[in-house]
Amino acid sequence: MTDSKNPPKAKTAITIPQEVLDQLKEREAAGQISSVSGHITSLLQREQEAAEVDAVLARLFPGKRPATEHLEWAAKALGVTTSAGQSSAA
Fold first, then answer.
1. pTM, whole model, 2 decimals?
2. What is the pLDDT of residues 31-58, one digit of tens each?
3. Which of 11, 17, 70, 88 is the one with CA 20 to 30 A from 60?
């Protein structure tokens, strides 16, 4: 069984604009991100989580978006501030 806290890792090469890489390395040096690869991994995980949330919403509200009252209830339940029915987490 794999340890979910320390999943196996693999190396790969990606091509990104030099300017983007330079910005990421500056952020890493400033301590704003742990590492370039860690930051990219985090972004990919958030993308996957967002897709999972979208899938749940599609099952709960087929063919439509949740109504304002649903969004307000969810924001209140999660302790998130809202502005015009939009969650600050959006």
1. 0.62
2. 999 999 999 999 999 999 999 988 888 8
3. 88
